[in-house]
From TrEMBL, chain A:
Transmembrane segments: 46-67, 79-97, 103-122, 158-184, 204-226
Residue ranges occupied by any ABC transmembrane type-1 domain in the UniProt entry: 42-223
Name this protein carries in UniProt: ABC transporter permease subunit
Subcellular location, record wording: Cell membrane; Membrane
InterPro entries: ABC_transp_perm/SBD, MetI-like, MetI-like_sf
SUPFAM superfamilies: MetI-like
Similarity comment: family membership: Belongs to the binding-protein-dependent transport system permease family.
GO cellular component: plasma membrane
From TrEMBL, chain B:
Pfam families documented for this protein: BPD_transp_1 (PF00528)
Limits of the ABC transmembrane type-1 domain: 17-200
Residue ranges the record marks as coiled coil: none
Main localization (coarse): membrane
Membrane topology according to the record: Multi-pass membrane protein
Keyword Transmembrane in annotation: yes
Residue ranges of the TM segments: 20-42, 63-96, 116-140, 147-170, 176-199
Name listed for the protein in its UniProt record: ABC transporter permease subunit
Subcellular location: Cell membrane; Membrane
Length: 239, 217
């Protein structure tokens, strides 16, 4: 809920002037509204991003594994997901909300965020599966492992660093696009940005934008650390 | 249906399309003009290159709406605000790809060039840049697609462009305007993607075409 605090407290001319030229950062407002506006927006943003990457992974892992086996399906899959990826987010949101049964709200935002993750995730699952050396798979076969055991015990663990690299790119992209989702009532940090712009209250805009940026940068660094941890043999080499 | 087609006959459709293209082209050009010289200047030093790449990586994590939103309190409403934000958005992919591309020319090739007596500038111009050209161009392509997509958001800070139709559709609750605007933006983005894919292939020196790989996405 938008809370009071930003509009006029104009008793004197100086106050009036300050209202016309709002301060860039009103720390008092930040303190007052941290608990009931800023924190919920941040949590909402994390929730939107997590759920979307989760759903996208559930779709991309099996698709990527299948496509890495049936190579003919790879070009059409990347073409289709590539087209999805290049549709500007505001345009995709505008399409989605007109679809009956979806409408305005977080559902449309999550669907769009999932759609944007597919290209990167599927591509990295396939690249990860391709990176498993043929000799390793031969050795596993020679040890008498079944196809299923090879997939879950050998191929996927070895492909994991490349898959995590994809999750990293997808997560950063999604955190960014999720801000725009606030325009169709998806919630999250974008809400602060849009409200701040429409009410000409810079503090809200800056808080929303800075937190979204920090969230993306922190997610990027955390997933990079995970990627390095999963790939101990490359740790000494420069990325 | 006719309601839908009427959107493209609106008197403001062409001006908005022109603004969208103008904004994108100028931002991309400025991005290239800033990122490329920086990448060329730092390519001798591994430390400076690594710094440039890291700055680029962090820059890529900044959400496009956040960039526009941050430019807004400083510069106010208008075309210039959008232009500055979109330029900032265009820089990182080009900077990352150009710095990486210039540095990954194989040491043997560099040694051979030195052995032939080429000067530093000649090595850069005749060896490094042509070899790195496809990678640099892949970065420009990533930037171009991002800039065209994000120019849609310019409408929120008064920059006009096709996003204005989408927003108008929402405000008046006229799905026809909203969808027509979205369609125009989507087509523009896909054309950009295909056009730059074509240019990327055209910019690959003949000798490299066999070994061509797409990087930087």
């Amino acid at each position: 809920m938008p809370s009071p605090g930003e509009p006029a407290k104009a008793g004197d001319t100086l106050g009036l002037l300050q209202d016309l030229q709002p301060k860039l950062l009103d720390w008092g407002w930040i303190g007052e509204n941290f608990g009931d506006e800023i924190l919920p927006a941040l949590i909402g943003h994390v929730y939107l991003s997590f759920v979307s990457v989760g759903i996208a992974l559930v779709i991309s892992l099996p698709t990527g594994v299948l496509v890495s086996r049936y190579r003919k399906a790879y070009p059409p899959v990347t073409f289709f997901t590539g087209i999805l990826f290049s549709i500007p987010s505001l345009a995709l949101f505008a399409f989605l909300v007109t679809v009956p049964g979806i409408g305005i709200g977080p559902t449309a935002v999550i669907i769009a965020l999932v759609a944007y993750s597919l290209l990167v995730l599927i591509r990295n699952v396939v690249a990860g599966m391709d990176s498993v050396p043929e000799e390793t798979k031969d050795a596993a076969r020679g040890m008498g492992l079944t196809a299923r055991q090879i997939l879950f015990g050998v191929e996927l663990p070895l492909a994991l660093p490349v898959i995590v690299a994809g999750v990293r790119i997808a997560t950063v992209t999604i955190i960014g696009i999720a801000t725009i989702g606030a325009y169709i009532r998806g919630g999250g940090l974008g809400e602060l940005i849009f409200l701040g712009i429409s009410r000409n209250f810079p503090t809200r805009v800056i808080v929303g934008a800075v937190l979204a940026t920090l969230l993306a940068v922190i997610a990027d660094l955390l997933l990079l650390a995970l990627e390095r941890y999963l790939r101990p043999w490359a740790r000494t080499r420069r990325a | 249906m006719s309601e839908f087609l009427d959107v493209f006959r609106r008197p403001d459709f062409i001006p908005l399309l022109v603004t969208h293209i103008e904004l994108s082209v100028v931002a991309l050009l400025l991005g290239v003009l800033i990122a490329l010289p920086v990448a060329l200047a730092v390519n001798r030093s591994p430390t400076l290159s690594a710094i440039a790449i890291n700055i680029g990586n962090i820059g890529r994590a900044v959400p496009s709406l956040a960039l526009l939103a941050l430019a807004f309190p400083l510069l106010g409403f208008g075309f210039a605000t959008s232009l500055v934000a979109l330029t900032a958005l265009a820089i990182p992919p080009i900077l990352i790809n150009a710095s990486t591309g210039l540095r990954q020319v194989s040491p043997q090739v560099m040694d051979a060039a030195k052995g032939m007596g080429l000067s530093g500038a000649q090595i850069l111009g005749r060896i490094q840049v042509p070899i790195a050209a496809p990678i640099i161009f892949a970065g420009i392509r990533t930037s171009a697609v991002q800039v065209v997509a994000s120019a849609t958001l310019a409408t929120f800070v008064g920059g006009g462009a096709l996003g204005q139709l989408i927003v108008l559709g929402f405000q008046r609750n006229q799905p026809a305007i909203q969808i027509a605007g979205a369609l125009a933006v989507a087509v523009l983005a896909i054309i950009t993607e295909l056009l730059f894919g074509f240019l990327e292939r055209a910019f690959t020196p003949k000798g490299l075409r066999v070994a061509r790989k797409r990087r930087g996405k």
